[in-house]
Amino acid sequence: MPSLKEIRTKISSVKSTKRIMQAMKMIATVKYAKTQLMLNSFRPYFKSYKDIVKIVTGSIKDSPSRFLNINEDSNNDILVIVSSDRGLCGSYNTSLFRMIERYSFKSENIKNLYVGKKGADYFKEIGFGESITSLTEKNYKNIAEEITGQLLLPFLEKKIDNIYIAYNKFESAISQVPTISKVLPIELEVEESEDDKSGDILIEPGIESFVEEVLPKFFNLTISSILLESVTSEHAARTAAMDNATRNADDILRDTTILFNKTRQAYITTELMDIVNGAEAIK
Question: What is the mean pLDDT of the chain?
Answer without folding.
Answer: 86
